[in-house]
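User: I'm new to structure prediction. If I give you an amino acid sequence, what do you actually give back? Let's try with this one:
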Amino acid sequence: KQIRGQRKGRGSVFKSHSKHRKGAVKHRVLDFAERHGYIKGVVREIIHDPGRGAPIARVVFRCPYKYKLEKMNFIAAEGVYTGQFLFCGAKAQLKIGNILPLSAMPEGSIICNVEEKQGDRGKIARASGNYASIVAHNLDDGTTRIRLPSGSKKIVKSSCRAMVGICGGGGRLDKPMLKAGRAFHKYKAKRNCWPKVRGVAMNPVEHPHGGGNHQHIGKASTSKRDAPAGAKVGLIAARRTGRITGGSKD
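Assistant: Good question. You get back a string of structure tokens that encode the predicted 3D arrangement of the chain. For your 250 residues, that looks like this:
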């Protein structure tokens, strides 16, 4: 019998609940105006996106090539307000909400919605309250070392863009859920992933951890990276297990 992790690939009841979502959140397409100068947009409204912790800013730009308006969805950095002018491009100022290439920002800058590769329109540090910071610029090969929200460091091209500031909606996890109904409504907007039945509470036919006269796993809880889909449960390709001790080494 398939385990739950395998059924998720089929879709059906495990599809994401995207009916009321407000659209993809991305930077502008990288054009001449952003590469060599800047372009001004105005924040029309700040809206809630169901299933997302961070608020969205609807930003309107005047299209540089045709007579029309470009409406973009940005992640609202903390401190962005309606009616604010946002500037995107290499010559934009270092102000909260503006979008600049990493090469235009000093070391130590706090940034969010960072591109992994030039022109991919934002991939890193997009959840509410998250931010990355610039550790160092390497001018010789045009790369920048950034610190990710997880604490790990990553090297990206200095031409990648990012928004200045931290994502709005921070402190979301400080308030306890308190009751199951709140968790129900939280995950109802996201996807079918709650409540989760533990593997040890199942029968052996439904899960590798199932069965036995006491609820116990009965084998190592780690599984290898190339384990077959039905056996890939527990701590997958764990480098280490157990409690995390010691402070963070920054």
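You can read the tokens as a compact description of the fold. Here is one thing that stands out. The helical segments are 4-7, 32-36, 180-190.
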